[in-house]
Amino acid sequence: ICTGTPQPEIELILQKKLLNQFFNDIYGSPKSKESISHEIISKYNLLNQEIIFIGDAMTDYNAALRTNVKFIGVNNPDTIFPDDTILVDDLREINSFL
To answer: Measured between alpha carbons, how far is 61 from 54 in angstroms, rounded to an integer?
Structure first.
C-alpha cells in the first residue's frame, strides 16, 4: 500500500480490519507517493512496465506519471482524471485490464 495517510494511522486501520496480512509492505506519509513508488521498484527489483498504480486521486495519477508506471483510476466524484485514463468503478474490474 502506498497512501497519503500517516504511516502509524494506516498500519492501525489495516490491523483493526485484519487486512495487513494481505500486503507485503505498507507505506504512508510523510513519504511521498512518488518516493514510495521508487522505493518499491528498487526493493523488489521491478521494471516499471511490471507495475500498475491504482488510485482515486490526482496525487496517485501524478506519482504514476512521474515514476513512469501504468495507472488505473478508480472513479471518484471528487477527481477528474485526464480523458485517456483507464477508469474502473470497482476494484474487481481491474482484472479485465491485466
So the answer is: 8
pLDDT one-digit tens code per residue, 63-86: 999 999 999 999 999 999 999 999
CA 31, CA 45: separation in Å to the nearest integer? 20
Q: Which of 18, 53, 16 is nearest to 37 (CA)?
A: 53
Q: Do the beta carbons of residue 31 and residue 51 sit within 8 Å?
A: no
The low-confidence residues of the chain, meaning pLDDT below 70, are none
Total Cβ atoms within 10 A of residue 85: 13
Evaluate whether 71 touches 87 at the Cβ level (below 8 Å): no
Q: How far apart are CA 5 and CA 93, in angstroms?
A: 25
